[in-house]
Predict the 3D structure of the following.
Amino acid sequence: MTRIADDHKGTSHLLMGNEAIARGALEAGVSVAAGYPGTPSSEIISTLAKVPKEHNLYVEWSTNEKVAMEVAAAASFAGLRSMCVLKQNGVNVAADFLLHLSGSGTRGGIIIVPCDDPGALSSINEGESRHFARLLEIPLLEPGNFQEAKDMTKWAFELSEEIRNLVMVRSVTRLSHASGNVIFGELPKEAPRAFFKHDGFILDPMEGIVVSVPVSYRHGQQHEKLKKSIEIFETSPFNIYTGPDNPELLIITASVCDLYTREAVHILGLQDRVGVLKLGTTWPLPPKLMEKVMGRTDKILIIEEVIPFLEENVKILASELAPKIGIKTFFGKRDGSLPMAGELNPDLIISVLVKIFSMRYESMPSSYAEKAETYALKAAPARDLTFCPGCPHRASFWSIHNVLKMDNQEGFVCGDIGCYSLATLPTGFMSLKTMHSMGSGTGVASGFGKLDQFGMEQPILSVCGDSTFFHSVMPALVNAVHHKSNITVVVLDNSGTAMTGFQPHPGLKVDARGNEAPNIDIQAVCEAIGAKVKTSDPFDFDGTQKALFDLLEDKEGVKVLILKQICALSPEKKEKKMFEMSVNIEECLGQSCGCNRLCTRIFRCPGLVWDKDNQTARIDEAICTGCGVCANICPSGAIKKEEVA
């Protein structure tokens, strides 16, 4: 039994923030959980997928975030508690349905859990999900520590059922992926039964049809629900003030920034001069609580990640309350006290407090800092962002890059989000020339492919992963075929959602719970849509490059090349080698070879290293996966591969 299902109330466990959120959902009696993999959110669904039988729980990795939200909504309509889990970009994908759902209202408790990524540690943007709470006009909750991640998640389901609408519980990377002690509560014993009532009066929220019209009536209901949320927020246990009755400075903060704030205040010894209001209910703001706390001082510092969402809402409320609380001086992001981009940390907050209080503070002697920087630069070797050893994407982009160079028509590749995004860098031979959201590579390529009437003659390619194909490439492919766009789509099929932990997708024969499931064949889908399709193994350079040349020569319509090779780090392939690799140092000419170290300077698989002492290439046995690809690119034949029996 996994620790997340421990049925002993009061026990304490060290949990990752995402695990704490999953435990909170279990304690709330969640029945359905759906999502799409996306760091830093993935572990919530993965954790719940370990205990479906024990808790009569249905868990799925959906095709995309919009579908995940719709699956969760169906459970709510049938009276069950449900949740949708995604990262910040996924809220954009689900937004169309969300606007309707917040208008129609819900029945069983339902929460959406976006995990944002301040600093873009595992993303190509640090977009905010908080604005969607205001756009959708639904309550926003933000846990500030690991215990709150569990407790607030459970409470969010109760709040949802009280107002009969969706509730957003926002996490961030440093909460989702850090760990802390969490005290467990009780797990429910009752097994709920699903039933969708739909034949009552049309405007009956619990027995009528579930629609967002008539809009004027439903929208008015939304605002009544928000008013009810505000009343509840006024006494929420997740809004906590600590500090003196009349502080010189009030700090208003939320989420993990509360931890940074408390550390900074403690380090500077400002506990008797600074008050801290940690908000767990960040939208809509509770005006009575805010009036009481903001009335205690004239100076207010607002600390949050990433953009000034909380700051702007506090200022709006402060202006409305000005006759009662007076005019305030605000510090935060808008006045430049805190940066508008990137993560925060205790040092950044200390620097702001030092200025406000005209203090002197030195975290370390400057001489020590200089020495530390010098030694760090000397001791730590430079490490480029690169594909893993044996990654099929490196082989795929080697062929794509070389074919486009040999074709000599200035062809280019449009890409999107995945491990293969690294192909904007030398590890992928800088092959990608555009990169935006999931599926946008093919959508953008579809647009490029219709510019021939304006004189564009360049070959146009797009790349996508197998999970991305199902997520959002299929509509773009349909668009390209329907409009006869002259493009070549390359599907990099490595048999899983590799970037976020090998979660299954519709192309595989297993679902999130490990059960057998029918797989959808990518080639059959592409052919049914009307594209011309070829399949190749990216480790087979000759076959792959010939297939790609053939497709590029065809100037009519959409072509698809499926490059199928399982990820080197997948559980099925891990620690299994196809070949034992070696370098014959007598045949390796190194820098004297006409290739000028092609293998370690250009191809640059981490499993190949340059031996400075012997002036030859060498196999790093510790990380080489034995894919055998490097033997194919060595012009002197010095890299050898021997098939493993």
User: Anything to note?
Assistant: The domain at 392-564 is CATH 3.40.50.970 (Rossmann fold). DSSP finds 21 helices and 25 strands in the chain. The two ends are 38 Å apart (CA to CA). The CA atoms of residues 453 and 619 lie 51 Å apart.
